[in-house]
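Work package 3, deliverable 3.1, input record:
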Amino acid sequence: MMRLTAHALTCQRGGRIVFADLAFSVDSGEAVQVTGPNGAGKSSLLRLIAGLVRIEEGSLVLEGGDPEASIGEQCHYCGHQDAFKGSLTVAENLAFWTRYLGGGGQGPEAAMERLGIGHLAALPAGYLSAGQRRRLALARLLTVARPIWLLDEPTAALDLASQKVLAGIMADHVAAGGLILAATHGPLGLPTRELAIGRAA
Amino acid sequence: MTGPLAAIFRRDLLLAMRIGGGAMVGVVFFLAVVTIVPFGVGPDMNLLARIGPAILWIGALLATLLGLDRLFQADADDGSLDLMMMAPTPLPLVIATKAAAHWLATGLPLVAAAPVLGLFLNVPPDAMGAVALTLGAGTPALSLIGAVGAALAVSLRRGGLLMAILVLPLTIPVLIFGVAATNAAIVGPLPFGQPFMILVALSLMSLVLGPIAAAAALRFGLE
């Protein structure tokens, strides 16, 4: 049983307060949809949990996780940039990140098949379409085991069939006791709790 | 711990070898610098032989710095750096590994090319070994010191020029002792061992301090 709790979080970027006094908690087995207008700080919140943005004030506590590891080390961060090299093939890119991040999930072939990019394995990632790159980024969620998934617009550029596959993958993760925080404007296709952030609120 | 580091070493080497990777850019630049010097200095064989080792060292120094600003910038641009900083592997080790891959892809070809290019500069054949040996001992320090500048340049857009300004003064001791050791081997009268030992010490020192400083710079670059 894991629980991620935030107390009075304040995030500052570029000298501007993005959000202040944010409090929430997420339990394992829960998917939370972070909503809010553009610029409300959805992406900043995810980066803050990942440890990529400094916490200005407040605290973020993870109960029930690995006490030896930081919160960021137990997170998957799937942002707008997919961290793939255009001159390496799809399989090389995925194999690198799987080894670098420690693996522990499915094999890369199985993950690529599930996301429907198995036939692209030998293609340099630079030739992939936006949707295919996004699916490759999502394959990393399967090959590396992490309890907390931070997804920034996970459905962006995905076609309807891929969105269904993603919904299935997220449902599996939640069913296995994982936590998901997804910043999105559209529906994710699975039961979620909404966390609305915004300067007006 | 060996898994992640081996993975990043292999990936950086692969990237350097692929098209657009820049492994050979340094050697080509080195070749360009060294070949134009005799045209500028004139066909004075004695003068060329005397300044030859210094020209080789300056050429290697500039060639090493040439592609160094991309060491972290490329990873920062595509989001790889975010994932690297989130992973449990200590950042200084990752930086040391990346610097090692950078040296193997750009520094080692320079060391290998130096004896051949020495022919252009009338460097005596028995001095070629000394040039290659000092470059082999000194260029790792250049990659490691450069990594600090590259890490500082990440938080600044178009930080390439700034990196050169930051890094060049720090590389001057390496240049001084590299050339001093080479000259000692060729003409004397000083013993070769003393400046060479200091050169090796500079490399070892930057191996310890460089990755720690670069990791601090990358973490500071976070918002």
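Chain A has five helices and eight strands.
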